[in-house]
Structure formats: C-alpha cells, structure tokens
C-alpha cells in the first residue's frame, strides 16, 4: 500500500507539472510573446531586408539583375549603405512586432484553451494547428500596415537617392494615409491573411509538438534545456516559412507595386504575372535569405518567450 501511495503521489506530481505548462495565463502569454517578438526582430531584420530586396528587384534578364543572390545583396547593401543599411525600415516593425507577437502568443494560448475542455489531455497536432491559425487571424490587423511601410522603405533604399520618397516610417504612413486613406495603409490585407493563418498554424504546431517530444518522460516541458528550446524554435521558424513564403512573395510585390497596377486583392494578378515572367520558382524568390533568417530569428524568439515566461512565473506566480 505504501508503494502504491507513493506511485499515486508521483502520478499527481507529473500531472501537476504537465498542467503548469498547459495553464499559462493569457496575460503571461501576451507579455512573454512581446519579449520574444523583440528578440526575433533584432536577430532577423537584416536578412528580412535582403529577402524583400530580392523579391522586389526588377524582372530583367538574369545577367542584368541588381542582386544575384542573398550573399551578393548583403555585400552590395553593406558597401553602399553600411551595416545600418541592413536595418532600414526597422522602425515600423519595431513598433509593431512586439505587440504583434504578444497578440500572436495570446491568440495561440486562447485557441488552446478553447480546444482543450479537458486540461488533463494533451492537444492533438491538428488542434495545435488550429490554435496557431487563430493567432494568425489576430495579428493581421497589426502586421499588414507595419509590413506595408517596412517593404516600401526597404525597396526605396535599394533604388538609390533618386528613389527616396519617404523620410522614415512615420512619414511613409502619413503620406500613404493622405494619398488614399486607411485603405492604402492596409493594402495587402487579404494576402497577409492567406500567408499568416496557415503559416502560424504550422509555426506553433511544430514548436509545441517538438517541445513535448523532446521532453523526457516524467519531466515538465517547462524544464526543457536552452539548446532544445533553440532547436524547437528554429525548426518551427523553418516550418512557418515553408508554408508562408509563396503568399509572402505575392504580398510583398503587391504592397510595393504602384497603385492601380493590380486589381482587387492582387492575388490573381500578381500570381499570373510572376508565373508568366519567372515560372513557379518565383514563388520561392529570396528563399535563401528567408531560411537563413528563419532558424536563428525564431530560435531567439522562443528563447526570449520562455525566459520571459520563467521570470513572470517567478515574479508573479498568481497571474
């Protein structure tokens, strides 16, 4: 009986440890997600600049292209603009990425709560995917205007001084608003949703699934080591961009195109033009920069999230 009692207590302890991870409050998810977003931006923005410039460079014969690849774009950007050139357009996402990731982690946490009526059971991968999709819906309202401004600033910087139309993020946003109102700032909303809903589903599903798989039996996922967190986060970032890159190429081209060039949401027109001019490979244009960025940036994001969450659990255990 004594041994059975000890086994029962051990089972209750393991259940409690598992529940600690499952019952993270939405407020803690929100705050920790913001910290993770800031980490993601500082690590990943230079390669994001390269990605955008590769995706939007003029469609000309290969021997006449401005950038021959990610490394060539990096060298030319640094030689012309210095290292700070890699951080062009960061003001807009800096103001949006922390709240965006905060809302993203909040949405994922909310989705898990809605799909997990029995807190003692682990969510299935499909449920994790749907929870992540909810996060993608939540973040579009912040992501779309931030990326519209960011992409315009990144593209104008690659065109030289004669192409400069905006002095900075605020100037860009104000000029867009004065030109065509709020619709101009939110240009590309549909394509942002098409990108972010499934890609966020893959993102959070991969991280949560891998995190549980890498946790030793009898241990809590909250005790996962730093290298394992970095690995899970990096792989999640890769999964996110495998799903999200084709619609991201469409979104970037649509958001940086002159007004009136594409009809409606831009989905059909941009897709038709890219496939006609460059073939299916155009949908993965800039992929080298994307995947080089995806692993370290998202590894940093999830590490920042987990460390912030650990601090919050220590400072405010009752939240």
TrEMBL record:
SUPFAM superfamilies in the record: Mitochondrial carrier
GO term, biological process aspect, one: carnitine transmembrane transport
InterPro entries: ADT_euk_type, MCP_dom_sf, MCP_transmembrane, Mitochondrial_Carrier
Keyword flag Transit peptide: no
Topology versus the membrane: Multi-pass membrane protein
Annotated compartments: Mitochondrion membrane
Stretches forming Solcar repeats: 24-114, 123-213, 224-311
UniProt KW keywords: Membrane, Mitochondrion, Repeat, Transmembrane, Transmembrane helix, Transport
Gene source species: Oncorhynchus kisutch (Coho salmon)
GO cellular component terms listed in the entry, alphabetical order: mitochondrial inner membrane
Name the record gives this protein: Mitochondrial carnitine/acylcarnitine carrier protein
